[in-house]
Design a protein that fits this description.
The protein is mainly α. Helix content is 66%, strand content 0%. It is a multi-pass membrane protein.
Length: 77
């Protein structure tokens, strides 16, 4: 296993185990933890916000409300 980012940067801050395990990233300081937390919350909020349109489109068997630009942006990310 390769060295984590914290070790390469010479920082002795202990990594959060689950972040290193599932995301392959090391949070070396409080700023990294805050940044990761906001990013993770953003993804969760975005995912929860999409549940209703997905269920509605599935139940109506229609994709009329789905923007082509949204799909291209979603795939590009």
């Amino acid at each position: 296993m390769s060295q984590s980012y914290c070790m390469k940067e010479g920082k002795s801050y202990a990594c959060m185990g689950w972040v290193e395990k599932y995301f392959g990233d090391c949070l070396c300081n409080i700023k990294d933890e805050i940044s990761f937390g906001f990013g993770f919350m953003s993804l969760i909020c975005w995912g929860v916000g999409e549940i209703h349109p997905i269920i509605t489109n599935f139940c109506t068997k229609s994709s009329h409300g789905v923007s082509l630009a949204f799909l291209f942006t979603w795939v590009a990310m």
